[in-house]
Queue: 2 jobs
Job 1
Amino acid sequence: MPATRRRALVTGVTGQDGPYLSELLLAEGYQVAGLVLPGDVVPDAVPAAVHLLEGSLTDGASLQAVLAEARPSEVYNLAAATSVADSFDNPVAVAEVTGLGVLRLLEAIRQADPRIRLLQASSAEIFGGATTSPQDEGTPLCPLSPYGVAKAFAHQTVQHYRRSRGIFAANAILYNHESPRRGTGFVTRKITLGAARIARGLETELRLGNLDVERDWGYAPDYVRAMHLVLQQDVADDYVIATGRTHTLRELLEVAFSVVGLDWHRHVVTDPALLRPAEPVRLCGDANRARARLGWTPTREFSDVIREMVLADLAGLDAEASPPPPQGPVRG
């Protein structure tokens, strides 16, 4: 008899990472379900083979219903209110989804089937005010934003359910990771799209906040591969997923604008209104545990990722500007 196909549930399936993770899981032979909010617009990047189920991390009953229908052996929680900047304006909403939502999901798993394995997409923002660099799994939590606080609550809730409730629950502490699928609300995509629009004569300037921000940027497909590896281990644990190298926004601008042959200094304007109340200055991850236990290493260099994003944005703008294909003769 053929082996039973593994089942996975991916929350946040419509974000940047969800489609990449779904593609990986389908290639591994999983049946994949994706959690979407009622009325969600599902991007074309989500594979057609993903079975979409409506629910919300703010509604425990809906999570129980989704688990009953999907019957997963693995749950990948990528859902969150993801904008750090917006979290200062909407801290309660962020806490409901990004923090308490994980508690609701863990309770739903405990009640439905405690054998289900959970991967929580944690964040480097839990280390926002860290006084040491690079950060690893033992670095004290010190979030600087409502988003970071909510992620820290979720991170420690996962640890509690692992230690005290017997759930296979693991945190992947994800540092910044990018791709052409990154949403336009994120500064990396704002820059790559801005460079493309300026190159095509659609804009003349790009307004940004603190250009000295330093981040550890990786490639999204590498990071979803790490998520999958975390749930294949014999024992649940937490893993920093990072490249171990940092770059400033100035460096990112240099790469992005060089792709289109422009000098970013001529087009970028620093806007004080875009400065955050509290901003981690340097976040750099130590992924030695992931390398040693998971055999995981990043495959793409920072500059290659940014170039890919700019080229994809140029192609998208050119496609929008192209006239529609000619119609054939109308048959009467």
Job 2
Amino acid sequence: MRKTPIILILPLLFMALIACNNMNKSKMKLEYPVAQKDSVSDNYFGTIVQDPYRWLEDDNSEQTAAWVDAENAVTNKYLDAIPFREDMRKRLETLWNYPKFGTPFKKGDYWYFYKNDGMQAQYVIYQMDSIGGEPRVFLDPNSFSEDGTVSLANLSFSEDGNYAAYSISRGGSDWNEVFVYDVVNKKLLDDHINWVKFSGMSWLGNGFYYGRFPEPVEGELIKGQNTNQQLFYHQVGTSQDKDIAVYSDPKNPSRMYYVGASKDETILFMGGEDPNFKGNALYFKKIKENLPKNDLSGLITIDDSYEFEFGLTSAQY
């Protein structure tokens, strides 16, 4: 939602780079912390490759934390010494501090829009009974945490507008948690979904599809590999352990899938992405009345060669 004209920022950044470079040459000598070097190497098909800084891959170690703190101290000392830093901050605030609005959209009986008063860290979602009606706060991501480290990742409404599923990210992590809000009764439900990553929430009826990964082992939350994703269907009002896995691809653990219904909920689409190939896959099936929402059998393949890029996302179904 936040768009700042690049043409306004580039001159400031250019001037800052010149000034900082001159200041670095004439006034300040940076003293970086000495990083420990270990005698670690790998043999790749007869070629020895040294990897002396592999210890930094352990993001949970006290040694890594100490090194990061030392690097931050060098950075902050340098930035604090820039004489025009406060002037630049004030100038940027002047450029950015104005109300910003998103395009209104209708879900169910209500209209919604995103708005930022000026310097808010995150846009606030407002609800109206009609276009031009009195807006009221529907969801304020700035209230998720006092220190501002929890952000809104996704927001998705059911087709009838009765429910809204939204996901949050803690500390900038790709891991998301999903919550469900009852729009009609204006209350947050007990639904709480964990271990969601690189996925939105695609509604069908009173539930939605989402992609998740296996719960990471202790100590691997950040650095663990993203493999063996599965698609699940969540029924509103139930706990996550009741969610049913609707699709997985154990033969291709690196692939990720997404699924969503057409606007009239008559066709179901499923797409696949593979980081090892340039392209994706696309499937569909017609949705029959009374068919269980977790039944993805009978998918018809449009293409699964991973040689084409369809450019279709769940938000476009």
